[in-house]
Amino acid sequence: MRALLNLALAEDIGSGDLTTRLTVPRGTRARARVIAREPLVVSGLVLFAPLVEALAAMGEAGAGAASLMLSEQVGDGAAVAAGKSLCVIDGEACAILTLERTLLNFVAHLSGVATETAAVVRMVRAAGCSTRILDTRKTTPGMRRLEKYAVVCGGGTNHRMGLFDAVLIKDNHVVAAGGIDRAVQAALAGAPPGTDVEVECDTIEQVAMALEAGARSILLDNFSPERVAEAVRFIARRARVEVSGGVGPDTVLAYAKAGPDGISLGRLTHSARSVDLSMELTLLV
Predict the structure, then answer these.
(1) Catalytic residue among 200, 216, 242, 261
(2) Confidence class for position 285, pLDDT limits 50, 70, 90
(3) Are residues 143 and 102 in the same domain?
(4) Which member of 43, 72, 231, 267 has the greatest number of CB atoms within 10 A?
(5) Could you give the 3-state DSSP secondary structure of residue 132?
(6) Catalytic residue (one of 138, 144, 240, 267)
(7) Is 138 a catalytic site residue?
(8) How far apart are CA 94 and CA 63, in angstroms?
(9) Which of 84, 101, 125, 267 is flagged as catalytic?
(10) Catalytic one among 170, 240, 257, 267?
(11) Both 247 and 138 in a single domain?
């Protein structure tokens, strides 16, 4: 994450904040409030300290960074109404202004992911369903850990982090391996102890083959809610059931009511819009 933060600061600040350097006297003290301009669920304030550390390491380009302090902070995962403050930042005005856009970019994007996730989770829970809302690997390159952190802030659950921490046998793996049975058996034989082995299935017939081969989790891909309910009855708790593909805000409730253990939605990370934030600065005497 530090490499990502350094990159974000470098692309915005470069050799230094020209406008601030020319217009704001060094040593000027200020207080800034980050304000929500719409209802949202917060994520990303945890990045304040490492961003300040990275800014301070930029030397003259990050002048005054060591003076910055965060207070009156709501926690990541908190729901905030429009017009309310997320946090207060005290310190040298030059450093606040230099950090402003990079900090707001991260918090606005991650809070957008958290807010999108919370809306889906809230809808499912209001209907009395315990189905977990899962994320996917459809994330912004370089930001996966942060976006998955934001999903958790919104009440969602992380699926696998990447290709390295779980086995998910998809249709092309089945083709390359020579069949579902061969793919599942090879994965079960070679996976580290405790590793989940999940199989993507397009039909009930494939579900039956995956179960026969010993799959521990079944991913129902592009099933209708009615077919999901049928598959859940057929699987009968012999494996964990996940649903993916074709799920959106208008259909997620129907899928949840069909009884799967989890529903994965790529839109939580790849389609969530950034929330609207502003920073309001006042001078300290």
Answers:
(1) 200
(2) confident
(3) no
(4) 43
(5) strand
(6) 138
(7) yes
(8) 7
(9) 101
(10) 170
(11) yes
Q: Which of 17, 135, 147, 221 is catalytic?
A: 221
What is the model's pLDDT at position 8?
A: 98
pLDDT at 68: 98
- Joined together, the tokens standing for residue 67 give 């003076």
Task: Give yes or no for residue 217 having a pLDDT over 90.
Answer: yes
Express each pLDDT in 109-125 by its tens digit.
Answer: 999 999 999 999 999 99
Residue 244's DSSP bridge partners are: 221
Tokens of 261: 């253990």
The total of structural domains in the chain comes to 2
Active site residue 200: yes
Q: Helix, strand, coil % (nearest 5) of the chain? A: 45, 20, 35
In this structure, the answer to whether residues 85 and 152 fall within a common structural domain is: no
The answer to whether residues 68 and 96 touch, using CB atoms and an 8 Å cutoff, is yes
| Sequence-distant contacts of 243-246: CB under 8 A, at least 24 apart | 243/219, 244/136, 244/200, 244/219, 244/220, 245/221, 246/222
pLDDT tens digits for range 26-44: 999 999 999 999 999 999 9
Give the tens place of pLDDT for each residue, 92-104: 999 999 999 999 9
* Whether pLDDT at 107 is above 90: yes
- Residue 101 annotated in active site: yes
At 230, which CATH number?
3.20.20.70
Q: Is 257 a known active-site residue?
A: no
Provide the domain limits for residue 201.
128-270
Q: In terms of domains, do 170 and 74 share one?
A: no
From the list 204, 202, 208, the residue with the least C-alpha distance to 181 is 208
Question: 6 with 99, same domain?
Answer: yes
Co-location of 84 and 208 in the same domain: no
Q: Residue 95 sits in a domain of what CATH number?
A: 3.90.1170.20
